[in-house]
């Protein structure tokens, strides 16, 4: 292969790569991957209750998301999928106790499938419940 042929090959390869990456802005469609997208709010309980309890995530004007738990089936880490409110009240309830605490979640925004393929927002709230 001559030097001239090699130069042309490198130039054409570079142009093809630039076009594939839409470096010219001509609207070549990008393909999004289908990686899992963690989207929602997670609640981690800081403490281990010895009785049945429930944990609710609620915002004004909407029905609460409620999870019922037992010592045999504890809920120390709860995921509320596709629930990403700007603020939320977490209500921990036992037979004798109701504890409500407001939070402003700090969402981590990721793009596992690429910037042009939508964002994923996930936050973890640590809720102290005592023992």
Word description of this protein:
The chain is mostly beta strands. The protein has 2 domains: 30 residues; 89 residues, Immunoglobulin-like, CATH 2.60.40. It is 14% helix and 36% strand. It has 1 helix and 8 strands. A 4-stranded mixed sheet has the order 4-1-8-7, with no helix packed on it. The longest helix has 18 residues. It is elongated and about 65 Å long. It starts with a helix and ends with a strand.
Count of helical regions = 1
Provide mean pLDDT, rounded. 81
Strand line-up in the sheet with most strands: 4-1-8-7
What is the end-to-end distance?
Answer: 76 Å
CATH class term of the largest domain: Mainly Beta
Kindly identify the CATH topology of the largest domain.
Immunoglobulin-like
Notable traits:
131 residues, mainly beta, Immunoglobulin-like, 2 domains, four-stranded mixed beta sheet, elongated
Write the layout of secondary structure elements.
Blueprint: H1 3-20, E1 40-46, E2 53-58, E3 65-69, E4 77-81, E5 88-93, E6 98-103, E7 108-110, E8 120-128
Parallel strand pairs: 1-8
Antiparallel strand pairs: 1-4, 2-3, 2-5, 5-6, 7-8
Compact description:
The protein has 2 domains: 1-30; 40-128, Immunoglobulin-like, CATH 2.60.40. With 131 residues, the chain is mostly beta strands. It is built from 1 helix and 8 strands, in the order αββββββββ.
């Amino acid at each position: 292969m001559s030097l001239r042929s090699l130069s042309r090959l490198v130039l054409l390869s570079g142009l093809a790569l630039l076009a594939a990456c839409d470096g010219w802005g001509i609207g070549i469609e990008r393909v999004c991957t289908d990686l899992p997208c963690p989207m929602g709010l997670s609640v981690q309980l800081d403490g281990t209750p010895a009785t049945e309890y429930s944990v609710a995530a609620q915002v004004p004007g909407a029905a609460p998301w409620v999870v019922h738990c037992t010592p045999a089936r504890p809920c120390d880490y709860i995921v509320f999928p596709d629930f990403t409110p700007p603020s939320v009240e977490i209500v921990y309830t036992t037979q004798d106790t109701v504890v409500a605490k407001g939070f402003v979640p700090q969402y981590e925004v990721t793009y596992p499938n690429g910037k042009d393929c939508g964002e994923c927002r996930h936050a973890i709230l640590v809720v102290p419940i005592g023992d």
